[in-house]
Amino acid sequence: xxxxxxxxxxxxxxxxxxxxxxxxxxxxxxxxxxxxxxxxxxxxxxxxxxxxxxxxxxxxxxxxxxxxxxxxxxxxxxxxxxxxxxxxxxxxxxxxxxxxxxxxxxxxxxxxxxxxxxxxxxxxxxxxxxxxxxxxxxxxxxxxxxxxxx
Length: 150
Description:
The protein is mostly helical. The chain has eight helices and no strands.
């Protein structure tokens, strides 16, 4: 178990969900805080709230890619590889959850909605965070550096 795994467990123990944990890890790596973004990520928790939607790990990881590569200001442009990074992330996630039958929380949790499965969900959060970091690095983006703050 590495430092990120321990931090994920600590954040889960504080009541943060999968998508929020991914956002918090990225913000901490950039030495930034953004409670508004963390609150916004809570809307992605538990498969969009009722377990029927896409897993918050995928939507939270997608949010992270956008945090680094998306357009945020009038004069900014999205990173040229942004669409490919999103496609690659979705492909990876489809493979990661194929044994569960699909990307919804309900499918991943085997119909047992209500509480995240520490092994399944925790493993997916850890793998997704590593996957996003790899995608960013492979496309010339430093996960420890976000876009410039204005």
